[in-house]
Amino acid sequence: MTLDPLLQASLPIRIHAFTIMPALFIGLWLLWGSRKGSPAHRVAGALYLTLMLVSVISAVFIDAFILPWLKVGDFTLGPIHLFVIYTLFGLGQAVSALQRGDYARHSAAMRGVFFGGLLVAGAFTLIPGRIIYRMIFGS
Hints:
The chain is mainly alpha-helical. Helices cover 68% and strands 4% of the residues. The chain has one domain (4-137). The protein is built from six helices and two strands, in the order αααββααα. A two-stranded antiparallel ribbon has the order 1-2. β1 and β2 (75-77) form a beta hairpin. α2 packs across α5 (103-123). The longest helix is centred in the N-terminal third of the chain and has 22 residues, at 11-32.
């Protein structure tokens, strides 16, 4: 295993990776290790939200590797970018539900962001040729 492919990647990819990695572990703790509503849960939740927002913004500037279909300026978007919309929508739903005191909806939205925006989208990084694949398995 080597970090070289990531360290040599473009700035948006590095930002994306270095915000997603801690978000993954914070998200795991928020979902299964924290006491919901506690001060620690709230602080970690705010950090998680910030990391996910930075990650989503950086994702827009990463060229589509698979099925590129839309050129926007210097960037090529593809189906993988639909996760940007999904994640932004989920984060918005989670914050809105929290502000309304709808904790069940907040929890459901955050689980959706974690599983869809992190785990499912993250599974695509294991496709041969992608950076995380090269880090783990070599070229």
